[in-house]
Amino acid sequence: MLQGKMKRGFCVSFVVWVVVVAAGFASVDGLNVWPMPESVSKGLSSLYLSKGFRLLTEGSEYRDESGILKDGFLRLLDVVESAHVVDGNWTGYDSLAALEGLHVVVFSPSDELQYGIDESYKLSIPATGNPIYAHLEAQTVYGALHGLQTFSQLCHFNFETRIIEVHKAPWVIKDQPRFSYRGLLIDTSRHYQPLPMIKNVIDAMAYTKLNVLHWHIVDSQSFPLEIPSFPKLWNGAYSPSERYTMDDAVEVVQYAQRRGVNVLAEIDVPGHARSWGIGYPSLWPSSNCRQPLDVSNEFTFKVIDGILSDFSKVFKFKFVHLGGDEVNTSCWTVTPHVKNWLKKQGLNESEAYEYFVLRAQKIALSHGYEMVNWEETFNDFGNKLNPKTVVHNWLGGGVAQRVVAAGLRCIVSNQDQWYLHYMETTWPQFYMNEPLTNITNPKQQELVIGERLWTPFDKLAKDPNLVAGRLAHFRCLLNQRGVAAAPLFGNGRAVPNYPGSCYKQ
Ligand SMILES: *[C@@H]1O[C@H](CO)[C@@H](O)[C@H](O)[C@H]1NC(C)=O
Ligand SMILES: *[C@@H]1O[C@H](CO)[C@@H](O)[C@H](O)[C@H]1NC(C)=O
Ligand SMILES: *[C@@H]1O[C@H](CO)[C@@H](O)[C@H](O)[C@H]1NC(C)=O
Ligand SMILES: *[C@@H]1O[C@H](CO)[C@@H](O)[C@H](O)[C@H]1NC(C)=O
Where does the record locate the signal sequence feature (predicted)? Predict the structure, then answer.
């Protein structure tokens, strides 16, 4: 994470993030799908979506009792229509063939969303038949949702005929993600984000096939979330209205789950937790030295236990994020009762930091979680971390290769390339950031679980200019769907330089 002046801006710019994540490949002429699928073949025929375009599910093992697929299909129609009135005179289109519906077959009956589930799909749209149906096959309903997103990007509203057309049929697309963890972080401590905004972010994540919303819920500045076990914690919110009830958190998790997005909840201990002491001042070393959390106080660990116990009822993702970055231990060495405790335990301040992180890890494990920790914990005492730890890189290059060489898993999100509040970072810099840099051993490569990127490595453009046109097209598509994605051209993420077409900015 981030200390100092950058902190305030952390991740405020997520309304524009979508222009720079995911990956692609340009040279397939006229193929404006983002991210680029693993394999694509297409033809030269045009079809149109019949007025009664419908979902069929014969042959599916998946029963869709919770309506995830049905709702996904309705959202597909919604984004494809994109608020246009589709009122073509269907009797007049004998020259074009009608696509009567989409036949979706899902093999797994389970709709459990979890880390590492099968997200692959196969989409085919034939050019002929009587009647013609598109076919989508997937192991899981979440793979099918990815297929619906791809399908939506093949549809175009024709302003002359007022109907929705699919060009370049027949299509055969086989696809699956390169990385199992494709995340986006939102920080609701430094900047409270209202629920509709969080839902918009989740929608945009689904459009780009990202699958983990990393919810950096609380930090030093504010504690917006209700914690039933310790009901005064959210006294640390910025204001009474900048808060989330636990029911709100449930709503976020369910909304995300229905779109194939997991929620990774974070508490950033002990170094980013000053706001906790507004409700419970004994969590501070002292009233004038408030951070990190008091390592000498058993109550500190009771509170962490209470939070993770409440989390485990709501945040069902396999991982919880325990932070652990930027721990300045000076309050521990200058506060008399903490200093005495350190002496009694025979710990110096860096050993106390290690003790804190490892004890928090044990609490997380006791609630059934595996844990993610920021890279400082690895840099300082990597050989002591629980083997179930995922190390989250942020400081810069060179870390992931050491983490995986030590046999631990790693999430790559180095700030120099992938921090969204660095407004001057250009999209080619985002695009060219390669998580497996310097990691050649295949066993070690498997330990890098993310943080972004869908497209297979050999399909990524080596020169970002090759994908500029396709990305500009995708940015316009996001704008059409109500996502305020920023222009590509210009310095980093900025206002458009001049009036002009969305496709050229
Ligand atoms: C629709 O198109 C058919 C065939 O071109 C034509 O006969 C009919 O009048 C049109 N209907 C409307 C409402 O325009
Ligand atoms: C650590 O915290 C102390 C007291 O809060 C502060 O004086 C010092 O500047 C901090 N050190 C760093 C490196 O930020
Ligand atoms: C703390 O103790 C460890 C082990 O004795 C030592 O390696 C480390 O340098 C010490 N750290 C500080 C800040 O004194
Ligand atoms: C790759 O290795 C080089 C040389 O050791 C190092 O300078 C660079 O930071 C590494 N890059 C990444 C992204 O790890």
Answer: 1-30
